[in-house]
Structure formats: structure tokens, C-alpha cells
Amino acid sequence: MKKSYFLEGFILGAIAGIVGGVLFAPSSGSETRQKIKKLKNDMADHPKEKAEEMMAKTREAIENGLQNIGKMIKKSE
């Protein structure tokens, strides 16, 4: 798999995840529309920086999740 395809897929997946999170979060309709507008503007103004920020947050979340799983396994032993 080429890196460019992976990166494109990752970025699209991250964007879809963020949009899904915003849409399904318990907010009023006007608040949700404002969040979507802000997200759209941020992504349009600084796509590379936002993509890198999302990738860093995703890596951090994965690392934290793996550490938590490791702790849970040790407790169950």
C-alpha cells in the first residue's frame, strides 16, 4: 500500500470521525451548525496543520488505550 493512499484514507477517516462526533454529540441544532462551520473553516484554512494535529491526537489516544489495556490485563492476572 502506498503511503499517499494511507495518508489520504487516514485524513478522510479522521474528518469523517470528527464530523460524526459533532453531529451525534448532544447539542442543539444551532450549536451543531456553528461547530460544523468552524470545523469546515479550520480545515479549509489550515488543512496540513489540522491533519497533523489529528494524527498526533490519534496516536496519543491509541498509545493511551494500549497502556490502559496493559494495566487491565495485569490487574486480571
What does this structure look like?
- It is built from three helices and no strands.
- The model has no long low-confidence stretch (mean pLDDT 77).
- The longest helix is centred in the last third of the chain and has 30 residues.
- It has one domain.
- The chain is mainly α.
Structural class: mainly alpha
Q: pLDDT below 50 for ≥5 consecutive residues: which ranges? A: none
**Main sheet?**
none
Total count of strands: 0
Q: Considering DSSP H and I runs of 4 or more, what fraction of the residues is helical?
A: over 70%
Distance between the termini: 38 Å
Q: What is the tally of helical segments?
A: 3
How many separate domains make up the residues? 1
Strand % is: under 5%
What is the average per-residue confidence, as pLDDT, rounded to a whole number? 77
> What does the overall shape look like?
flat
Q: Helix and strand succession?
A: HHH
